[in-house]
Fold:
Amino acid sequence: MGSCKDEDRNEINCLFVHGPIIIGAGPSGLAVAACLQENGVPSLILERSDCIASLWQQKTYDRLKLHLPKQFCQLPFLNFPKNFPKYPTKHQFVSYMESYAKHFSIEPKFKQSVLGAEFDNLTGFWMVKTQDFQYFSRWLIVATGENAEPVIPEIHGIEKFQGPVMHTSVYKSGSEFQKQRVLVVGCGNSGMEVSLDLCRYNASPHMVVRNSVHILPREMFGVSTFSVAMALLKWLPLGLVDKFLLMVANFTLGNTDRLGLRRPKTGPIELKNATGKSPVLDVGALSQIKAGKIKVVEGVKEITKNGAKFMDGQEREFDSIILATGYKSNVPSWLKGENGLYAVGFTRRGLLGTSSDAVKIARDVADQWSMINKIFPDIDTKLLK
Ligand SMILES: Cc1cc2nc3c(=O)[nH]c(=O)nc-3n(C[C@H](O)[C@H](O)[C@H](O)COP(=O)(O)OP(=O)(O)OC[C@H]3O[C@@H](n4cnc5c(N)ncnc54)[C@H](O)[C@@H]3O)c2cc1C
Structure:
């Protein structure tokens, strides 16, 4: 470590990193660090929070289980323990992540929030800036996730509401909402699962469904819907697979349009590929909607002091509002340049995409790494002088 001056001539800590800098210690960051290590390349992970897999540890609800079967969510070179169920709980997933980091001796540098990353054409190095350091490396791997920041929509009048308003990233359990009337804004996987969790605590959730949504059973004939789709896609065109999934969904779940959950015109997989919008995999919310325990309401026109006015003219009182309005990436706010730049975990294919990205990036960097080390065996020590 050394010291250098920033653009305002202040002395700051500088560190030349041997190998790539990886930003983010979620599953993608850990996977790529492990793959690099398997290829003999060291790396350094910078993570803004104080733990690995912070999305899973700090921003998800207690009852969360993996949406997809475990074989689609494990990371390269280390499988889930055999005794884990088909859909591991979030606690099991976190313990797997911790064993993964331990197994590959990955020690991220925590509390390092990346504020800027810029490629310097003159030196051929990336300069990555955090609140108290500047790091330099030939390679930058962005693994900050598609879910880095909560999306908080502008809803007319929300500032007038007297009760609590929270995003699902801070929702832990329905125990805080017992017997309350809760407005849940959003009907994706999080909106559905939070509404279901609220029912379990005798709360009365009203779920706002503004857009169309595909709901599929989590399993078809005892096999996960995701596995069925993946298998069929090997043999059949996408349009036909979508038709098949919708036929089985209509047969097992019934016509969801009648419940106020209109299906999009585009099929579930085609929509996912085109827009990244995942279908909801039903884990029980639909039966609560059918039983009238979760009320489906149309778009919100306005939030009032004690509740909400809806597009259909109805007005209701609520005790709390939960925004199940999703997440977005924060990369555009701090990244500049493209040389030696890699991204892992942005393919909208979840943990399955993470694993294949990590393996490919590690191979590519490893090739360059061995070439540079052959030509300039002492390049790093020279740069530090
Ligand atoms: C409720 C929920 C359930 C999900 N269930 C599944 C599932 O069953 N199967 C599946 O495949 N996917 C699932 N996903 C998607 C899931 O987010 C990803 O598959 C997985 O967590 C992606 O890992 P990642 O490492 O790319 O991103 P993340 O897990 O989001 O990790 C990114 C890390 O980068 C850090 N970071 C962000 N910005 C900065 C910065 N500027 N500086 C430093 N560090 C930064 C963050 O703190 C975080 O630790 C789920 C997502 C949610 C929200």
In short: The pocket of flavin-adenine dinucleotide is lined by residues 23-29, 46-49, 54-55, 60, 64, 66-68, 73, 113-114, 143-145, 147-148, 190, 330, 334, 345, 350-351, 354 (CB under 6 Å). The chain has a mean pLDDT of 93. The CA atoms of residues 65 and 89 lie 4 Å apart.
